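Changelog note: in this version the structure field was regenerated for every chain. One regenerated record is shown below for reference.
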Amino acid sequence: MTQKSKILLILLSVLIVLTAVYYIWQNPLIQKSNQASTEQLLTGNLDNLQKIEITKNSQTTTLEKPAEGGSASGGQSDKWVVATQNNAEANVTLIDNLISVLKDLKTGNIISQNQEKLASFDLSEDKATKLKLTDNKNNTILEILIGKTGPSYSDCYIKKPNSNNVLLIPVNLVYQVNQTDWVKPPEKSTTNTNSTK
C-alpha cells in the first residue's frame, strides 16, 4: 500500500466516525437505552376540563368555561370563551380538536434526559409553548412544554416543567396550540342577492 493510499484510508475512516457521531448527536431516537422508557402525562379526566392556558413568548391565551350558577355540570357552563380577549366566544372547533387529541395522550416516550439539548428540541424557556389544563376544581390535569415537530409531521417533542425527560409523543401539538386566533369567526351573512326590477 502506498503512502497516499494509507492517508486516504485514514481520512476516510475519520470521516465515517465523525459522520456517525454527528448522526447520533442529531437524532436522539437512535439512543436505544431511552427508547423503551415512557412517562405518564395526563393526571385527570378531560371531561371535567374547565380552563386551557397557552403561553408563548410571555403571552398567555386563556380559554375557559365560565361559572354559571345552577348549571347541571356543577356550576360550569358548556360554552367556551377566550378570557384574555374580554370573554369573546371561542372557536369551539379548535378547542374540540385539541381536546380530542389530548384524550388519547396517556404517555410519551423518553428520548433524552440531557438538559443541554433542550434548545435543539425547542424546549428552552424562550422557545417552548406552555400548555396547562385545569379541571372544574382548579386541579391541574396536564402541564407541559411543547417544542418542535418530531421526525415525522405527526409527532412532536414535549417536556413536563419539573422533569428532565424530553418526550416524543405521537401527536403534533405544535399545530394544535399555535393558533393565530381562538375567537369564533364571524358567521357569514346569507343575504338575498336577487334584485327586483
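Spot check on this record: DSSP finds four helices and ten strands in the chain. The mean pLDDT is 84.
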